[in-house]
Every structure is written in C-alpha cells, then in structure tokens.
Design goal:
The protein has about 350 residues and is of the alpha/beta class. The chain is about 50% helix and about 20% strand. It has two domains: about 140 residues, Rossmann fold (3-Layer(aba) Sandwich); about 140 residues, 3-Layer(aba) Sandwich (Rossmann fold), CATH 3.40.50. Strands 7-6-8-9-10-12-13 form a seven-stranded mixed beta sheet, with helices on both faces. Helix 9 links the parallel strand 6 and strand 7. Helix 4 runs parallel beside helix 14 and helix 10 packs parallel to helix 12. The radius of gyration is 33 Å and the shape is elongated.
C-alpha cells in the first residue's frame, strides 16, 4: 500500500512539473498572420498610394519650352514621388502634330494633359472637355482660346500658366537703351494670335514714349527672311515678341541683323539667338508653378474649372553680351548677361 501511495505521489509531481513547463515556455503555436511583425502588418493594411498618368505635349524642342517641361515634371515628382507616369510627345514645331499627340492622350484616358505652348493648348482644348488641361508657355489665354472679355479664369477644363512679361516694361527698356531713336519695327508671325496681341500692346506703349512703330508680319518661315530684311531696312530698332516661329528660327533674324541693327525680344531664348536685351522670366519656374497646379488637381484639392491663370513670379533684365559687343553698345545698369547656351 505504502509503495502505491509513493508511486501516485511521484506521478502527480511529474505531471505538475510538465504542465508548469508547458505554461511557462515560448513554444506557443501561432498562425502565420499572427506571427508577422506589427509594423509589417500595419504597412500591408495601409491603402496603396494613388497612381496617375499625365500626358505632356510640347510644341517643339527649344530651351524655354524644355525648361518649362522639366520644371513641371520636377514639381510633380517631388509632391507625388513614384505615383505619376508621364507620357511625352514633341510635335517638332508642327502644330497639326500636336493634335495627333493629344488625341493619343485622350484615347488613353490620361488623368491630366499638360500642353506646352499655344498650339498644344489649342489642340488639347479642342480634343477634350473632360480631361483636365494645363497650359504653360502660353502668353494670353483669352486670345489663344478666343474668349471675349477674359477675366483670368477659363471656367472649363482648362487652366495653366502664362509666360507674358509686362509689355509696357519691355517698351520702356527700349527707351532706356535708345532714348533718341525714333522708329521701331515690330516683327512677328501672323499665324500666332498671341504674337499679334503682344505687338499691338507694345506698339501702344512705344507710341506713348514717342516712337513711330510699324508692324512687319510674316506668315511662316518661307517669307520670314524677306520680311525681316524689309523691317531691318526701314527701322532703327526691331522688337520681336514671344513668338514660337522666331524662337525656332533665330538664325534667320541674326543673319540679317547681327552687327547692324539692335533687336529686343520678349523672352530670353530668342534674345540668346538674335537679340540685344529682354525682360525675361524663368521658364523652369513657370513649369514648377504649373506642376504644383497639376498636383492639386490630381489629388482633388482644386477644381481646374475654378483655377485662375497664374503668372511668372518675377522678371529679370538680361542682355546678350556678344551681340552688344558687336554693336558697340554700353549696357545700362541693372542687367545681367544671358548664360552661354
């Protein structure tokens, strides 16, 4: 009997020790989901970042337009890193090609279209009334889109940024350099409504300063050289607005005017190719502003129909050092040299 009691007691102690060991150990079995680190589980439960597709149509390869496109992309990528796919098309200076590029974006149902230069904007505005469109390097939206009494907001699926520098200040710049001159020829492409708008406004300002102005328009590159020659023969000074055709063919103007007659321009890229001086904006900064507008539209922060056109934040007086030297001109104070291209 005594031996049986001892055996029972020993079994009881062994069982107790075994249960205690099981209760205090770390071998509890968990499901694979329960075994994952808390941070990993939280990351998997978080919603994936939204993805967007943005189409970019640029009229032509040109330093100013290239800078605007780069600024746009940099601003978007900074705000939405890895969330935006860019589809890019360059029309190589051919306006009808803009329509082909834009129609491709519309067929692909991109989330937004960035139209770089007026022909690209016109193509986008004609192709879609639903996809948000942001223009850049566009001078005057009311003129470009045929809006009477334009007040600064398009009110449709179109908005963007303008590269218009103060035209009265450009006229004053000519007076600053040549206070005794009397005649100014205004050279531009008649196929570009924004160029017509600029020369009309500059002419008013120049005439208010005592200059006699004559407009010289060419229809395309076929008559550009002959019209430029006529303007140079009959003027003391030439003024060229922000004009896409001249921007792509500054060599034509320079071949006729270099060392003979000063040319003032509406933007830095043209001035670098054939001009004396300009009141310039940063097209990269303009692109950045457009990119920030894009981010607000994609994320739903803003409605494109309610976004007013935005303008360059600042303007800089710049001069072409080589051309000024060849003409023997003394540069007034407050100008900085255009960096070599």
């Amino acid at each position: 009997m005594k031996n049986r009691k001892l055996m029972a007691l020993g079994l009881s102690v062994a069982l107790t020790l075994s249960l205690a060991a099981c209760g205090g150990g770390t071998t509890e079995t968990k499901s694979p989901e329960e075994s994952k680190p808390a941070e990993s589980a939280a990351a998997e439960s978080a919603p994936a970042a939204a993805q967007y597709v943005v189409g970019i149509c640029q009229l032509a390869p040109h330093p100013a337009l290239d800078a605007a496109t780069q600024g746009f992309k940099d601003a978007v990528e900074e705000a939405l890193p890895g969330q935006v796919e860019f589809k890019e098309g360059n029309a190589a200076g051919d306006s009808p090609t803009c329509s082909t590029i834009i129609n491709g974006f519309v067929s692909a149902n991109v989330d937004l279209i960035m139209a770089n230069a007026t022909p690209a904007l016109n193509a986008a505005a004609s192709a879609t009334g639903d996809i948000p469109v942001l223009g850049t390097s566009v001078t005057e939206y009311g003129v470009a889109l045929g809006i009477e009494g334009f007040t600064g907001t398009v009110g449709t699926n179109v908005s963007g940024t303008s590269d218009l520098a103060p035209l009265d200040q450009q006229a004053a710049m000519i007076k600053e350099w040549f206070p005794d001159a009397q005649t100014v020829g205004l050279l531009y492409c008649s196929a570009e409504p924004n160029s017509q708008y600029q020369v009309d406004e500059v002419q008013k300002a120049l005439e208010g300063l005592g200059f006699t102005c004559t407009q010289y328009s060419f229809s395309d590159t076929n008559d550009m050289a002959s019209v430029t020659q006529k303007a140079a023969d009959n003027s003391e000074i030439l003024y060229v607005p922000t004009d896409n055709t001249v921007a792509n063919n500054t060599g034509i103007v320079d071949n006729i005017c270099h060392g003979k007659i000063p040319v003032f321009t509406g933007e830095e890229g043209i001035c670098a190719g054939c001009g004396v001086a300009t009141l310039s904006i940063s097209y990269y900064d303009l692109g950045v502003t457009t990119g920030k507008m894009c981010v607000k539209i994609l994320t739903g922060e803003s409605n494109v129909a309610e976004m007013p056109i935005e303008y360059a934040p600042q303007f800089t007086k710049k001069y072409n050092e080589a051309i000024c030297a060849d003409l023997g001109l003394t540069v007034p104070d407050g100008y900085e040299a255009i960096a070599a291209q």
